Amino acid sequence: MVNELIKKADDKMNKAHETLKREFAAIRTGRASLGILDGIMVDYYGTPTPLNQVANLSVPDPKTITIQPFEPKLLGEIEKAIQKSDIGLNPGNDGKVIRLSIPPLTEERRHQIVKHAKKLAEDTRVACRNIRHEAINDLKKKAKDKDSHVSEDQVKKVQDEIQKLTDSHIKKLDELLAHKEKEIMTV
User: Fold this and answer.
1) Which among 132, 120, 123 is positioned nearest to 12, based on CA atoms?
2) Out of 44-53, 66-75, 83-92, 169-178, least confident range
3) From residue 174, how far is each of 29, 120, 181 by CA, in Å?
4) Is the dihedral of CA 123, 19, 26, 74 positive or negative?
5) Helix (H, G, I), strand (E, B) or coil at 96
6) In terms of pTM, does the model score above 0.70?
7) Of 26, 73, 76, 121, which has the fewest Cβ atoms less than 10 A away?
C-alpha cells in the first residue's frame, strides 16, 4: 500500500519530466530539429493529422528541414499548416518538396528562449513538488486510518523516500535545462 504511493508519485513525476522533454524538443535553437514540427496538424481530407503522418520529414543539413508529402496534392495544406503554426518559419515550396530554412538566432532572441525554457522547467519543478505534497497528504490520511496499520516510523521513512524521489527528479530536470540552455546559447 505504501509502496504503491511511492510508485504512483514516481510515475507522475516521470510523466512531468517527459512532458518537459517534449516541450524542449519543440523549442527552436537555431539548428534544424524535427521536434519543432511535432505540434503541427495538417488538414488531411477533413481530418486534422500530425504532419509526420502525411509527409516524410528530414534534416539534410543543420540549417534546413525538408518535408516531402506522401501525396503531392497535400503541399498546399502542409504549407498552410506551417504558416498558421507559431514556429516562426516560412516554408519554401518548389512543387515537390517544402523547405524550411532555419535562420540564425540573435543573441537577444537566444536569451528570450532560455528564459522561456527556464519557466517551463520551473513549472515542471512545481508540478513535482505538488506531486510530493499530494503523496505525503495521502500517506498521512492512510496513517490516520485505524485499519491501515501504518506506524509513525513508517510515515517518516516513506516521507523521506518521497523527498529523495522528488530531489532526484528535480536534479534530472535541472540537468535537462542545463543541456537545453547550452544547446540554445551555442552559436
Assistant:
1) 132
2) 83-92
3) 18, 11, 10
4) negative
5) coil
6) yes
7) 73
